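[09:14] KT: can someone run the structure on this one? pasting the chain below
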Amino acid sequence: MTGPDSAGGLRIVRLANFVTARSGGLRTALRHLGEGYLAAGHEPVLVVPGRRDGDERHPWGRVVTLAGPELPGSGGYRLLTGRRRLSRLLAELAPDRLEVSDRFTLRWTGGWARAHAVPAVMVSHESLTGLLGQWGVPDGLRRPIADRLNRRTARSYDRIVCTTRWAAEEFTRIGAGNVEQVPLGVDLDTFGPDRVDPGLRARYADPAELLLVHCARLSAEKRPELAVDALAALRRAGVPAVLVMAGDGPMRAALVRRAAGLPVHFTGFLPDRLTVAGLLASADVVLAPGPVETFGLAGLEALASGTPVVVNSASALPEVVGPAGLAAYGSPDAIAAAVTRLTARPEAERRRAARARAEEFGWPAAVAGFLRVHDAQPARPTAPA
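[09:31] RB: done, structure tokens below
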């Protein structure tokens, strides 16, 4: 692997917490952005927590792992802790740009960047207001707390990147003037309608049955229980639907108990991306019931696969899926009704609309947007978007 071109290449150091070792939308985004930075002649260095220290080279750049504690009850998330150690590492890496993907424990790195004259960007991957609600903070306190913390974030970094208007709203409402909107992308080659796998579909559903898929981490913020309960509502209404829960997480055992007596299949973690692509393409509808999603890469991968998505109307996903899906209030009956309305559309029509919507989101455009925010011109020609 070669490094950045000597003329104009920048070292872009990226810090991220809440990244699982195997899957997740943030991990996918970090990988594709790193590949794009490298292709543009820059040097991406990703710093993440893990079980043990490490320093490896990948097609998406250098990855430095710092041993960090596991967050209790998170199902495997680890944290970068120890400011002195991370500060020393940052000094050794000598970044030209700093990109941070954690608005909570790593906010202090904005001050480090300012003290060292390093332009710094915070990427907002979640709605703080929404997360406070998930954590049980009373309604009347969520917005004041979120606004106070977001003001600190906006003051600490040169720019804030949000992937949707929905995500940017909590910054624009406090008058932050340094917010940039840059949508993420989707791998349009890996995920496509041609990945339909009749054998895979037959493993889970009979020809007359409706195949629903929930493809996400089985954790509280994703609200996976809504998918199970929506299936129950459909079955009560006489709809011959089955559900595949693709993924793993801390809620799996509870969900298995909740799904007792229902045709729900738990696949666990699927390491093969082509298997995931085949499952998404073979489904009739994908469910994305999480209420705090700020972009939702799994939903976009479903659209790229030609499969429409039912999303939570409280999240950013209605903005992402557009006419290729339906938004439903976060209740099982509402989600079940949206599934029924979607599948009433002619199949060819709904699949064409899904793929067409996904084609509006490409990783080359996302990379170009992030490099623009970094004031980083390509150091060598890149592939056209």
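[09:33] KT: thanks! Residues 1-6 have pLDDT under 50 and may be disordered.
[09:34] RB: yep, looked fine to me
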